[in-house]
């Protein structure tokens, strides 16, 4: 049971650790909400706000994370650093999206997506001298931040101070109540109201300060270190807590909490603002509260460029005179687009979606597009519309068989123009251009297959259109069988194949000349022609010769000449009436086997171990079974002559 509990706790801690990486800022504050039942302790509502980069999906170290962890841990210490209670678990009470979009007609659209999570818990603390520190520490910050070294390993500390008995233990801390995502453009001035809120009406002053790390050595775990909290993140020069993002003029904050800056580079910057809370009556400092947030500076520069195709040809199949205008302009978020259509009409749109315009007639029209026509960041371009629709492409085919002429007929039409020529492509390397009004063409395919045939139409209105079809060409590959030697009285089942319909000529000796496998029972030399057809009407022919010898017997020559002249180059036997071959072996005069096979068609080529065998007399032995089931064994000699 103990091992199981440790395993569960380990998995939970591992989840908390890995899920922490995507947090980019936060703050912690408190509100006094009453007293305990015995009036000895104050009750405080602790709120921790954490911010997440909602555009963050995957990172080199941080993996792919898209959620806040829940719960989050905080710890309570005295001013002297003594821990006064067990860890406090704060749970999410609300999550809110923070989104801002740059809406400028002269700048490229940019969107900043953040999320803020509110974690809360209620604790009771007895008032003591020096008060308390409530701190939440964690690893790690966002990846590849511009102003912090190794930011994905840099931790965070968020803390708040509850005053002691010498001050005002029932205080309500100041906090930053304005949560927003702000799009900031490089080279352009920006202003952010970063003022805090204090329920007690205390006096507040502001300053840019250093972001706090979590105080551990390697920043690999969520920490529980006591105050004082003065370990800061490692800023990359020239950046610092007081100058976290540079700029010209540099970033600054005034006594009203207004941040101003004109950035001088794009990037992601951690900004920390400290607010000092003073009692308006005693002028005593009640505490200093800080908040971290990530400011992303975008390169928002846009060169406004009007764009649409220089030539738009309406070659649609429908004869309608409506033309679609795509808009390829580079423009700002709220740019406007002024179209002049060349037919005496114009329009202004505020979107880059395809715009449809109805022309009164066919013809060639000059078109102009102006982006931001009333602003200095405008641009324009012109183009041409050739409005001659009604081009319909199609063709039919007639014929199915290999090597027969296949007819292709163009069935195309053109409502507002004339087809001047046609290019046919038959799924092979070459193509055929046909000029004039000739609509039909024939083509022969030398192999059965599926071919992609295309027809491209060329017109007098500079419209082209291509239509394709997959054309199935059928091929019959007839086979009547191998030429055969039979013994007189031996029957043979013919082995026709390759189609659906068969016809043997002549029909002499065949049981049925319309079958693929008729039985042959004959005794004279004869040649058959097999006609094979398929269901599509394609036809092919093949022949077979049948010779009859007295047998069963094996006819074997007594010499051969393997000299490469193509005549008598192999030593082989001619079987007559033999249906099975057990072995055919050849030996030299020393009894070494130089050849062995059961295939009478190949025969011995006169080599031994890849080298030409010597001129000599060799012994052969052959055994097989004839069509009557009788074993036949023959021996003899053959002379190799070169």
Automatic annotation (TrEMBL):
It comes from the Bacteria. Pfam families: CHU_C, PKD_4. InterPro entries: Ig-like_fold, PKD/Chitinase_dom, PKD_dom, PKD_dom_sf, T9SS_type_B. SMART domains: PKD. Residues 329-372 form the PKD domain. This is Gliding motility-associated C-terminal domain-containing protein. The lineage of its organism: Bacteria, Pseudomonadati, Bacteroidota, Chitinophagia, Chitinophagales.
């Amino acid at each position: 049971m103990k091992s199981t509990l440790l395993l569960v706790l380990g998995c939970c801690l591992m989840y908390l650790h890995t899920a922490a990486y995507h947090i980019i800022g936060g703050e912690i504050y408190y509100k006094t909400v009453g007293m305990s039942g015995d009036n000895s302790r104050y009750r405080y509502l602790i709120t921790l706000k954490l911010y997440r980069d909602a555009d963050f999906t995957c990172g080199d170290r941080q993996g792919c994370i898209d959620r806040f962890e829940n719960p989050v841990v905080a710890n309570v210490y005295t001013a002297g650093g003594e821990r006064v209670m067990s860890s406090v678990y704060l749970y999410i009470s609300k999550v809110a999206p923070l989104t801002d979009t740059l809406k400028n007609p002269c700048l490229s659209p940019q969107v900043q997506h953040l999320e803020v999570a509110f974690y809360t818990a209620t604790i009771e603390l007895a008032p003591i001298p020096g008060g308390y520190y409530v701190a939440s520490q964690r690893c790690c910050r966002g990846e590849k931040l511009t102003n912090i070294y190794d930011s994905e390993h840099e931790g965070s500390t968020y803390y708040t101070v509850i005053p002691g008995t010498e001050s005002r233990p029932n205080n309500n801390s100041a906090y930053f109540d304005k949560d927003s995502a702000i799009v900031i453009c490089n080279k352009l001035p920006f202003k952010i109201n970063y003022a805090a809120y204090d329920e007690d009406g205390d006096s507040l002053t502001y300053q840019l300060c250093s972001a706090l790390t979590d105080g551990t050595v390697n920043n690999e775990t969520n920490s529980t270190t006591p105050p004082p909290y003065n370990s800061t993140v490692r800023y990359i020069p020239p950046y610092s807590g007081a100058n976290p993002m540079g700029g010209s003029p540099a970033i600054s904050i005034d006594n009203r909490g207004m941040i101003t800056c004109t950035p001088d580079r794009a990037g992601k910057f951690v900004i920390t603002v400290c607010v000092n809370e003073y009692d308006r009556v005693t002028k005593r400092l009640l505490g200093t509260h800080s908040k971290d947030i990530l400011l992303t500076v975008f390169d928002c520069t846009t060169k406004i460029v009007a764009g649409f195709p220089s030539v738009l040809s309406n070659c649609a199949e429908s004869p309608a005179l409506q033309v679609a205008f795509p808009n390829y302009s580079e423009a700002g978020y709220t740019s406007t687009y002024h179209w002049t259509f060349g037919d005496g009409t114009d329009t202004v749109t505020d979107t880059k979606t395809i715009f449809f315009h109805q022309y009164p007639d066919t013809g060639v029209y000059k078109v102009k597009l102006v982006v931001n026509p009333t602003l200095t960041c405008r641009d324009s371009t012109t183009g041409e519309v050739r409005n001659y629709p009604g081009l319909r492409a199609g063709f039919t085919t007639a014929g199915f068989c290999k090597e027969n002429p296949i007819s292709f007929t163009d069935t195309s039409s053109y409502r507002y123009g004339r087809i001047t020529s046609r290019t046919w492509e038959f799924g092979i390397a070459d193509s055929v251009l046909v000029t004039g009004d000739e609509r039909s063409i024939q083509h022969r395919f030398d192999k059965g297959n599926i071919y992609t045939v295309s027809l491209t139409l060329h017109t007098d209105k500079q419209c082209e259109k291509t239509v394709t079809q997959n054309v199935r060409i059928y091929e019959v590959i007839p086979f009547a069988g191998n030429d055969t030697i039979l013994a007189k009285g031996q029957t043979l089942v013919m082995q026709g194949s390759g189609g659906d319909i068969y016809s043997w000529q002549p029909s002499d000796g065949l049981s049925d000349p319309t079958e693929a496998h008729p039985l042959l029972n004959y005794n004279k030399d004869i040649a058959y022609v097999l006609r094979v057809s398929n269901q599509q009407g394609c036809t092919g022919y093949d022949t077979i010769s049948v010779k009859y010898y007295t047998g069963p017997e094996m006819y074997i020559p007594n010499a051969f000449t393997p000299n490469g002249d193509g005549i008598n180059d192999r030593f082989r036997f001619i079987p007559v009436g033999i249906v099975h071959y057990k072995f055919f072996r050849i030996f030299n005069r020393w009894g070494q086997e130089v050849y062995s096979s059961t295939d009478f068609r190949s025969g011995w080529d006169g080599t031994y171990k890849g080298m030409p065998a010597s001129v000599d007399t060799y012994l052969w032995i052959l055994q097989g079974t004839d069509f009557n089931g009788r074993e036949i064994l023959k021996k003899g000699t053959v002379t190799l002559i070169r």
